[in-house]
Specification:
NAD, FAD/NAD(P)-binding domain, redox-active center, five-stranded antiparallel sheet, FAD, Enolase-like, domain 1, seven-stranded mixed sheet, FAD/NAD-linked_Rdtase_dimer_sf, nucleotide-binding, alpha/beta
Length: about 475
């Protein structure tokens, strides 16, 4: 070990993505001696190749679409003049504006020791990063995930894009083939179509298979209306390059042809090269195996974020960070729970979910549920803004306990938060029904959905009988 530097810490965090940064920032500010190790870019996938650039691109696409739809408001219509190089500058400018919050300088200022090297466990209590040995009371592995590349014949001989490269395109694709109809695939398909590319989206099952089927259908119709060719329930037999084009042969013998290929077929945990076996940490096909307290088989090592094999959302990684800090620093037996976990697909319209979908609720509770819904077509604000597609839906048990909510429509990601708050606080449906919602707002739709729980009783035979009786009594 001659020439190696040695550090002793209370907490060593491997990975400076969403989960790792949140853990390191919290621990350092609470007085823990904290080491943060990152071999690549600070901010991880979310800042550099995920949430931030994708939402910046979607914002540009939405602006282009607003120009196309301006005549509906009596404003002169014209085709948007899309400068794709300027769009790219907007995307990377957004990353640059947010980057200081995730920077090495900020974390050093917070009191972290930051090491920009690849980390590897040598034993259950020691990590080697470059030329530095780190021994810590607790470790957190937060190395994130990367795009999964399917075993598709011919793909290894083709140039293809993933979320890690698609935002670096210097020119707009002529025709983008998107493999994968999950949230990333749907968002990118719509964004590039609205920015002027031809787009074909291919999905083995239906698009957005983890979401409510009726809500996913609203998104599908919107994609088609924008001009995206959506091919569902079809497999891909092989991929090949013909001249400058990429050709996919599908299981139904169709052969879509494109200039670019984007693979958006899921994610894979980053577990390679970490020496996890030497540390006594078990790895599964999904990622690092953890318990509800995010502890690995080695109780001194935690895993957080995408690498822990659960839902892959930045806000879920943030929740993981809070659980890890309370367990690792304060030894509190806090557990993760997905019961009130929300997620959003940022297409237009957005699709948001918290808790159980209708199908999941029926599987778990049978016929003992109430399904309540309201359409944005009946919401005056949505009508005024010409965004009346979609609906809000809630599922409760017979006593009015909220089991889940689905919203597909304008600003669904904002509107779902009221339902998440109600569920987290253990509030019943009557609380949302009793809210005085300002008029006209999109948020009125949640009050309308909640009020539907009482409609059969309020306007039923017993109420009418009581009203007539009281009328006769004067």
């Amino acid at each position: 070990m001659t020439g190696r530097k040695e550090l002793t810490a209370d907490l060593c965090v491997i990975g400076a993505g969403s989960a790792g940064l949140s853990v390191a920032a919290g621990a350092a500010q609470m007085g823990a001696r904290t080491v943060l190790i990152e071999a690549h870019r600070m901010g991880g996938d979310c800042l550099n190749t995920g949430c931030v650039p994708s939402k910046a691109l979607l914002a540009a696409a939405k602006a282009a679409q607003a120009v196309r739809g301006a005549d509906g408001f009596g404003v002169g219509r014209q085709a948007p003049d899309i400068d794709f190089a300027a769009v790219r500058r907007h995307v990377h400018g957004t990353i640059a504006a947010i980057a200081p919050h995730d920077s090495e300088d900020r974390f050093r200022a917070l009191g972290c020791t930051v090491i920009r090297e690849r980390a590897r466990f040598l034993d259950p209590s020691t990590v080697l990063a470059g030329n530095t040995l780190v021994r810590a009371r607790r470790f957190v592995v937060a190395t994130g995930s990367r795009a999964a590349v399917p075993d598709l014949p011919g793909l290894d001989r083709l140039p293809f894009l993933t979320n890690e490269t698609v935002f670096d395109l210097a020119e707009r694709p002529r025709h983008l083939l998107v493999v994968g109809g999950g949230p990333i695939g749907c968002e990118m398909a719509q964004a590039f179509r609205r920015l002027g590319a031809e787009v074909t989206l291919i999905q083995r099952h239906r698009i957005l298979p983890k979401d409510d089927a009726d809500a996913a259908e609203v998104v599908r119709r919107s994609l088609v209306a924008d001009g995206v060719t959506v091919l569902e329930n079809v497999g891909i037999e092989r991929a090949e390059q013909v001249g400058t084009d990429i050709v996919l042969t599908l299981s139904d013998e169709r052969r879509p042809i494109g200039s670019h290929l984007l693979i958006a077929a899921g994610r894979r945990a980053n577990v390679e090269g970490l020496g996890l076996e030497e540390a006594g940490v078990r790895v599964t096909a999904k990622g690092i195996a953890v318990d509800k307290r995010l502890r690995t088989d080695n109780r001194h090592i935690f895993a957080a974020g995408d690498v822990a094999g659960g839902p892959q959302f930045t806000h879920w990684a943030g929740h993981h960070a809070g659980v890890v800090i309370r367990n690792a620093l304060f030894r509190l037996p806090i557990r993760v729970s997905e019961r009130t976990l929300p997620w959003v697909t940022y297409t237009d319209p957005e699709l948001a979910q918290v808790g159980l979908t209708e199908a999941q609720a029926r599987d778990r509770h049978g016929d003992g549920i109430h399904v309540l819904s309201a359409a944005f077509a009946d919401n005056d604000r949505a009508r005024a803004e010409r965004h009346a597609e979609g609906f809000a839906k809630a599922v409760t048990d017979r006593r009015g306990r909220i089991l889940g909510a689905t919203i597909v429509g304008p600003q669904a990601g904002e509107l779902i938060q009221a339902w998440g708050l109600a569920m987290a606080g253990g509030l019943k449906i009557g609380t949302l029904a009793g809210v005085i919602a300002p008029y006209p707002t999109l948020g009125e739709i949640s009050k309308r959905v909640a009020g539907g729980f009482y409609t059969p009783t309020l306007y039923g035979p017993r109420t009418r009988w009581l009203v007539r009786l009281l009328a006769r009594l004067g």
